[in-house]
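subagent[fold] <- orchestrator: predict structure for attached chain, return tokens only, no commentary.
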Amino acid sequence: MIVTTKATRTERMKALSKLALGILRRCGERSNVDRAGGRSRLSEVRHNEFRLTLARPIGDDGTSTLDVRFCGKIVLRVEWTPDTVTRTSYQPGQWEAMLLRYDQTPALAKRAEAPT
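subagent[fold] -> orchestrator:
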């Protein structure tokens, strides 16, 4: 059994969030949607068993959400405002090493070229 402290868990979530956000910024398909709380900008990447989604409010300081799904299950979720992280959920597992590997995969490692 692996024992982790709250600080270790928090640092792991930060590192994994940065990986997922990097992939989303480079390769995410972007769209705007209307939600109950207002308009949001969505960015999403689907690659094999992963689905990464970032939702950010448009025009205000509302809550942003990062979801990492692996085989259909949420394994990492982070919600934050400009001031603080408001909610987190994290399930350690094999997906972590795969996300790190995918961050270096040519299909996800660089920004997609716009069609000419």
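orchestrator: received. Logging for downstream: The mean pLDDT is 87. The helical segments are 6-27, 95-103, 106-109.
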